[in-house]
Amino acid sequence: MEVERNLLSIGSRVRLRRADLPEAGTYSTRVEDIDETRIVVQPPFVQGMPVSLPPGTRVELEVDRRQLPGQGLYRAVTVVLGKDPGELGFVYLQKPESWQRVQAREFFRVPAMLAVQIRAAGEENAPWMIGQTRDISGGGCLLMAGQRFAVGQAVELILSLPDRRIAAKGMVKRVNKPEEGPDSLWALAIAFTEIAERDRDAIIRYAMKRQIELRKKGLA
């Protein structure tokens, strides 16, 4: 569904991904200026190095406005116009003609077994439960835990990626009893509601890398 064209303003946070290198993951950046024809963003960096964005490169932009009533997650495809020759190296993007509203489930989801801790949110002394993910994406995860939570319940999570630990808040969307495994385990589908953009980007990069590994093994 096509939506309003003017979703961005100066200071907006956006995620950017090269359309020709989707396996490289997404990069978080900030809008520095915007006019009728172009968007100026900070150059994205990975491990201290600027991401290569030559003129003519097609990129996907994503902006998350789900924190606003009636808003959602939006995506557009555009092209790199060039780079500011100055010290800051701002990147010029062609202003998209339109944006598409997408569903959070469209985040790239992959099978993954990662250690996770979960507890009820808003309860200072709530105990942490140890669990393990079954799949993960930038929008949430499916995990196994030894405690049943109610659908709609707010939870806190600590996810252990191979190279970092990520704290996030989420909401329980679905609760099932797994067909296999101990009777004490519950399968919980969690949607992230509060997560730092740098942490979401780290999850998306991990998911991309994981998908490539599974394809090489013939498992995806």
Could you characterize the architecture of this molecule?
This protein is mainly β. The chain is built from one helix and 17 strands. The chain has two domains: 101 residues, Pnp Oxidase, Chain A (Roll), CATH 2.30.110.10; 107 residues, predicted glycosyltransferase like domains (Thrombin, subunit H). The strands form three sheets. The chain has a six-stranded antiparallel beta barrel. A six-stranded antiparallel barrel has the order 12-13-14-17-16-15.
**What is the distance, rounded to the nearest whole angstrom, between the alpha carbons of the first and last residues?**
30 Å
Q: CATH topology of the largest domain, anyone?
A: Thrombin, subunit H
Major beta sheet summary: 6 strands, antiparallel, barrel
CATH superfamily of the largest domain: predicted glycosyltransferase like domains
Please report the total strand number as a whole number.
Answer: 17
Please, what is the average pLDDT?
85
Provide the helix percentage: under 10%
- CATH architecture assignment of the largest domain: Beta Barrel
Q: Count of helical segments?
A: 1
Order of helices and strands: EEEEEEEEEEEEEEEEEH
Structural class: mainly beta
Give me the side-by-side strand order of the main sheet.
Answer: 2-3-4-9-8-7
Strand content: over 45%
Q: How many domains, as an integer?
A: 2
- General shape: elongated
Query: Low-confidence parts lasting 5 or more residues at pLDDT below 50?
Result: none
Rg estimate, integer Å:
19 Å
- The CATH class assignment of the largest domain is Mainly Beta
